[in-house]
User: Which sequence fits this backbone?
């Protein structure tokens, strides 16, 4: 299934760093999201971006993860040539990720 | 005071004004906060001020003040805002002039200054370049420290009805009234941490009432067109209920609150602020009624003693052009257009530092996307950062020229050019930054 089926999220930015949250709709899906959404898998999902490193934070009481992705924004909103210079679309792009192994 | 009612009038420079007026009129607010200063806004404001010393504050200040001052004065609601941008003193003058024009007979407007550290930034290293700011030489435009609550609280204690600052940390605009009203000690880290959480949840206004949230069929938001701005009911320990006015659109739910709490905070254990390091890692939200969410669990620790400084500098010129292709084979025609522009620019003496070409609808925000042959239309976009203005203009010219000299069926070309003012950041000891305020008053004058 797609992450979008079981989670929602939001993107923010500071300089060249993107901050993407991933939040389970249903606590029952939290263990899958927590275990599947490793920093390495997220890095692979964003492989076409020039990402320097990814930090990952867990908030179990909120069934939420917070990813801090450095180098994702082509230098940041003030000088990036990107159309979406803030990277506001990136949470939606992350929700495209497949979670769990195919049956 | 047992419960303080504090509302968010704006979450960015271009925010909608009507929800702020609604809050001012019906919110029974003690405070209405306007956060209007983005990362780059102050550098652009500084450029404006250099050209004309009477400007440099938020261009919408006058409209916002004219819209909300009558209700705020009538209801005893005090205003705190960073709309002073690069010129809080001129912003206070403007606010006073609006008040007089509205026939208000008494108003105290404080301008808080001290965030401008351009004269001291030279020796401090920039995170992005690893070099001292002085190396930017004449490209340096502005340097502003993210100040905390000190100057804001001092202005409130002096009785200001309206407090206008430039660069301050966004949550500090909300923390200052809480500290002023509840008398929290400056080392009461847990309460300060809770106050920062309230500020952080409210600082983007509609982003916690259902804005930046709707995903049709999955995350639906009722009556989004008439979305209301949020307010918090905060007790003297910093615990709060986030809500919005009855009759407004949008929603305040556990989900909207979690999304906003994690927005731009990076490490939830260490949300660095000028007056405290806030810890949101154990925060929880409970829905206690329709559009009412109780917030608890934030804590805090001693501040780092360092302030973040945003440094604005000129970094070349940006040029861009766009043109649309539709129907059969549109992806191939858009792709051909990009290669034509590249080839033609390479034949001219154009100083390009970096560039990108893309097809909006295919790969402009998500480079890994694969075009489907079902795509009905694309918009070709070519953008470059250049050494000078003339080079940047050449970018849009070559895209526009695709009308006659490009692939079949190109339509709706647009072009633009602007100077790039980039932002870098640095850290400065808080002791180097002294804030102060100046009060400008409207006094009743006997006829």
Assistant:
């Amino acid at each position: 299934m797609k992450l979008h089926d079981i989670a929602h999220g939001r993107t923010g930015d500071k300089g060249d760093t993107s901050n993407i949250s991933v939040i389970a709709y249903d606590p029952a899906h939290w263990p899958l999201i927590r275990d599947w959404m490793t920093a390495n898998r997220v890095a692979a999902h964003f492989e076409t971006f020039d990402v320097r490193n990814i930090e990952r934070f867990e908030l179990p009481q909120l069934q939420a993860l917070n990813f801090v992705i450095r180098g994702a924004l082509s230098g940041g909103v003030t000088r990036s040539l990107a159309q979406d210079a803030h990277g506001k679309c990136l949470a939606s792009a992350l929700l495209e990720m497949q979670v769990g192994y195919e049956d | 005071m047992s419960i303080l009612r504090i509302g968010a009038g704006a979450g960015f420079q271009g925010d909608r004004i009507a929800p702020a007026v609604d809050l001012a009129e019906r919110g029974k607010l003690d405070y209405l906060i306007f956060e209007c200063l983005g990362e780059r806004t102050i550098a652009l404001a500084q450029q404006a001020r250099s050209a004309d010393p009477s400007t440099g504050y938020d261009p919408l200040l006058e409209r916002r003040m004219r819209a909300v001052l009558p209700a705020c004065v009538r209801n005893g609601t005090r205003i705190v805002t960073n709309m002073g941008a690069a010129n809080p003193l001129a912003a206070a003058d403007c606010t006073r002039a609006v008040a007089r024009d509205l026939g208000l007979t008494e108003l105290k407007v404080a301008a808080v200054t001290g965030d401008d550290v351009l004269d001291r930034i030279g020796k401090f290293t920039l995170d992005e370049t690893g070099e001292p700011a002085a190396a930017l030489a004449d490209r340096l435009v502005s340097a502003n420290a993210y100040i905390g609550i000190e100057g804001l609280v001092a202005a409130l204690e002096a009785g200001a009805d309206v407090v206008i600052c430039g660069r301050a940390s966004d949550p500090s605009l909300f923390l200052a009234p809480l500290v002023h009203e509840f008398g929290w000690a400056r080392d009461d880290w847990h309460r300060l941490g809770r106050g920062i959480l309230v500020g952080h949840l409210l600082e983007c206004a509609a982003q916690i009432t259902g804005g930046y949230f709707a995903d049709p069929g999955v995350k639906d938001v009722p009556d989004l067109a008439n979305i209301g701005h949020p307010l918090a009911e905060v007790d003297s320990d910093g615990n709060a209920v986030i809500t919005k006015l009855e009759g407004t659109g949008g929603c305040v739910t556990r989900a909207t609150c979690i999304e906003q709490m994690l927005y731009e905070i990076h490490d939830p254990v260490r949300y660095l602020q000028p007056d405290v390091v806030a810890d949101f890692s154990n925060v929880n939200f409970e829905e206690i009624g329709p559009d009412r969410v109780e917030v608890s669990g934030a804590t805090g620790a001693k501040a780092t003693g360092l302030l973040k400084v945003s440094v604005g500098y000129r970094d070349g010129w940006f040029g861009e052009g766009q043109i649309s292709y539709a129907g059969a084979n549109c992806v191939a025609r858009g792709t051909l257009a990009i290669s034509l522009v590249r080839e033609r620019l390479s034949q001219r003496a154009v100083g390009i530092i970096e560039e990108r070409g893309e097809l909006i609808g295919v790969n402009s925000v998500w480079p890994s996307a694969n075009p489907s042959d079902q795509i009905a239309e694309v918009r070709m976009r070519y953008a470059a950062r250049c050494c000078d203005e003339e080079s940047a203009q050449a970018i849009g010219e070559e895209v526009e020229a695709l009308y006659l000299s490009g692939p079949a069926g190109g339509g709706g070309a647009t072009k633009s050019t602007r100077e790039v003012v980039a932002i870098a950041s640095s850290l400065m000891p808080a002791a180097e930054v002294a804030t102060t305020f100046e009060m400008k008053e409207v006094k009743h004058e006997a006829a």
Observations:
- Residues 312-424 of chain B form a domain with the Alpha-Beta Plaits fold (CATH 3.30.70).
- Chain B has two domains: 3-116+144-310+426-442, 312-424.
